[in-house]
Amino acid sequence: TLVHCKAKDINTMQNVIEVTLPSRKKGKIGVNVRPNWQTALDKIKEKYIIVVYTASHQSYADAVLDFMDPSNKYFPHRLYRNNCTSVKYEGKEVYIKDLSIFKGIDLKDIVIIDNSVVSFAYHLYNGLPVLPYYDSENDKELLLLACYLEYIAQYKDLREANKKFVKIDEYRAKAIEEEEHCFKAEKNVKRLEKKS
Fold first, then answer.
1. From CA 147, how far away is CA 71, in angstroms rounded?
2. Which of 90, 95, 120, 132 is most exposed, with minimal Cβ within 10 Å?
């Protein structure tokens, strides 16, 4: 959501930083930082507590966050892969960010922002999907996000605002419809293959 990182072809990236991998080996990664991130987070911090909740390993995530924010002004609260719930989805391991780990904070007061809807599968109405970021200098996603969050802060239940404006139910219904359509098409292909 905030950055795009990769370990190969790092010379094409805006920044190159050293990270310690979970294996304790050191390596270099390329990091593209989403434009306007400081402006957006300054605006968001006026009404919200920001918690970075990433599916990345802590050593890797901390290296990136410390590079972006060496004074820890923006990212003092951090959760990592070990705070996620690992599940199998279509044969792959995915990490779900379970908001129930926030003890003493009502879910009505939490919004999770991610470019992967799967990451907030347990709390769809708390979720706010954003476009993935790779390298566009013209990206305005975080500025739009800051405006949206400022607007919905007036709601007593942030989930109700998301239901109204994000319309996750419509996306969910469409996804189910597409999955059913793909399943029927797959059955038809298999039937045709048997005939030939």
1. 25
2. 90
